[in-house]
Amino acid sequence: MKDILIVEDGKTERERLSNLFSNEGYSVIACESVQQAEQSLNNDVFRLAILDIGLSDKSGSYLFNTIKRLGKVSYIIIFTGNPSVHLKQRFLEEGAADYIVKASPQAQNESFLNRVKEIIGDSQTFTAEGIPLEVFLGRHVMPSSQQLFLNMDNSFPACKQCNGASYKVIFSHQTQVPPDIVGQVVCSQCGRPMDPDVE
C-alpha cells in the first residue's frame, strides 16, 4: 500500500505536491494523466488520492468514478482551479473528502499538509515488524476472546479494501506494559486496519 496518489498534469504543481508529501515521509506516486493513474491503481492501493479534474487525456470526474468503483483508495481530495461552489458540493456529496482550489490559502504547503494529516494521519510504515494475527491469537488471547477476530466459520474476514484475509499485528512504538499491549491489526496485503465489525 502507498500513502498518496497524485494525479496532476501541471508539472510544477505535481512536483510541488510530490515533494511536499514525500519530505514528510509519505509514500507518493505522482501521475500526469488518467492513463498513468489507472496503471498505478492496477499495481497498488492508496490511502489517499489527490485529483486534478482538468486532465489532458480524460476528465478527473471519470477518474474519480473509476477510483470509487475499484475501491482501491480510501479517501479522495479534488484539487482544481475551478472555484465553483456547485462543483464542490457535487464532489463532496459523491464522497470526496475535500475540494481544494488551486492558489487558495488551503492549497498552500502548510495548510494542504495539515489537511492531509487530518484525513489520513501520518505516513504509514506497513513494512514495520509485526506478527501474524493467528500467531498473536494463539500466544496471547484466550480462546473465548479469539472469536472477536473471526467469522462464524472461524476464518478471518475479507479485507474491505483488497479482499485479502491475512492479517498481522503491529505494535505501537510506546512502552508496552503487559497486560496492556497497544497495537493494531492490519491487512498483510494493503495495510488497512481490520474492520471491527467482523461478520
Helix content: 25-40%
Summed up, the domain count is 2
Largest sheet: 5 strands, parallel
> Which CATH architecture of the largest domain?
3-Layer(aba) Sandwich
Count of runs of 4 or more consecutive helical residues: 7
Q: Could you give the order of the helices and strands? A: EHEHEHEHEHEHHEE
Structure description:
The protein has 199 residues and is α/β, with parallel strands linked by helices. The chain folds into two domains: 119 residues, Rossmann fold (3-Layer(aba) Sandwich); 58 residues, no CATH class. The chain is built from seven helices and eight strands; from the N terminus they run E-H-E-H-E-H-E-H-E-H-E-H-H-E-E. The strands form two sheets. It has a five-stranded parallel β-sheet with strand order 2-1-3-4-5, sandwiched between helices. Helix 1 links the parallel strand 1 and strand 2. Helix 2 runs parallel beside helix 3. The chain starts with a strand and ends in a 12-residue tail after the last strand. The model has no long low-confidence stretch (mean pLDDT 85).
Short overview:
This protein is an alpha/beta fold and 199 residues long.
What attributes characterize this protein structure?
199 residues, alpha/beta, 2 domains, five-stranded parallel beta sheet, three-stranded antiparallel beta sheet, 33% helix
